[in-house]
Amino acid sequence: MSRSAYLVQQKQRGRRLFGVFPALYPREIFWAMNALPVEIWDPPLETGDGNAHLQPYICSVVRSGLELILKGQTRMLDGFLFPHTCDSIQNLASIVNDYLGLEKPCYFLYNPKTPDGHTSRRYYTHQLRFFTRQLEEQLGPMDSGELGRRVAQGRHLQGLLKEIYDLRSHGRLAVSNTAFYRQIREGEYRHPDDFIPSLEAFLATSKGTGNEGPGVILSGILPDREILSHLDHLGVPVVADDLLNCNRRMSTGNDFFEDPYEALVENYFAMPPCPTRGSPIQERIDFMLEKVTQTGAKGVIFCGVKFCEPELFDLPQMVSAIKEAGLNTLVLDVEVNQPLSGQLATRVEAFSEMIR
Q: What is the pLDDT of residues 171-220, one digit of tens each?
């Protein structure tokens, strides 16, 4: 079932739909209120109308998201959520909320920008409770027991994803790079009642011997479809990732908390290091090198979205540290939904030869 058909089905079941821009947000709160978050990353559109509202140096994730709204393809949504991920997302929030006249509720979530600490945890707890109260004005009172159940469901979902990632890192998942990320990215819009059975079926049918070619790690924002397809063609498996859209949102925490809000706070602070959360660069380097050790990867592909400032700030030090560790690196600057140019394809091919 296509994404659009699935969303129509969910709407018919009585669920409210909310467009969520990247990247970190408490999806369990939506689930507990019979609402479905629908993430907006890279809708397959040619940008045109959005260019009149944005500077030319704004990233294509923001540009394509605005284009989706301007083309009227978000009419079925009941509102939007804009997490404070970066300045570009914040500017987009102002455009959508203040100038487009959509007459849809817009919610704003201000994630803490310090990695840890009592003050940051208390602040984030306040943000989550305030966001819940705002949603309740539109959707009605939340059942605290239902929130606890959805938080537990989120933990189960994280466990399934971790198992899938671990199998891949040890070469025990017999799927292509393209198929792997197609499955993972279903979580951007599918309800957990549907996504969990889908992951379980994927696990049951995909175990086996994976591609034995030299593995690489992807770092950046999104798994680019064209690059994944080209790596499949070259016989180069992706064995791990440091992608905001994927692994960086997978919590590493295992502790149990009675209070669902406390559990959500701990889940946030147990996520891997990320520049959008203000993580120190050394933590990112250590995290990447640990993945190299665990997987035996031969190289790292930094596949950044053009003009993504949070990624670009860390990139020079990340590349330098990986090279010092004796690995090959490839830095690609891409736009979402753009075909793979001959130049980029040649660079990927040359990189695949270097790591063999």
A: 999 999 999 999 999 999 999 999 999 999 999 999 998 888 899 999 99
Written as six digits, the tokens of 110 are 């201000």
Instruction: Give 141's contacts (C-beta < 8 A, 6+ positions apart).
Output: none
Distance CA 6, CA 328 (A): 41
Residue 189 three-state SS? coil
Q: What is the pLDDT of residue 114?
A: 78
Scored b (16 or more CB within 10 A) or e, 264-290 reads: bbbbbbebbbbbbbebeeeebbebbbe
DSSP letters of 238-265?
EEEEEETTTGGGS-------SSHHHHHH
* Residue 349 amino acid letter: E
Label residues 292-312 b or e (16+ Cβ within 10 Å = b): beebebbbbbbbbbbbbebbe
Does residue 114 contact residue 268 with C-beta atoms inside 8 Å?
no
- In angstroms, the CA 343 to CA 68 distance is 29
Starting from the edge strand earliest in sequence, which strands make up the sheet with 79-83, in order?
Answer: 35-39, 16-20, 79-83, 106-109
The backbone torsions φ and ψ at residue 251, rounded to the nearest 5 degrees and listed phi first, read: -65, 140
End-to-end CA distance of the chain: 39
Closest CA to 156 of 199, 93, 92, 113: 199
Give dist(CA 249, CA 301) in Å, integer.
Answer: 19
The rounded distance, in Å, linking the Cα atoms of 217 and 240 is 5
Residue in this structure with the two tokens 């695949």, named with its chain if needed: 352
**For residue 334, what are the β-bridge partners?**
305
Residues 6+ apart with CB under 8 A from 282: none
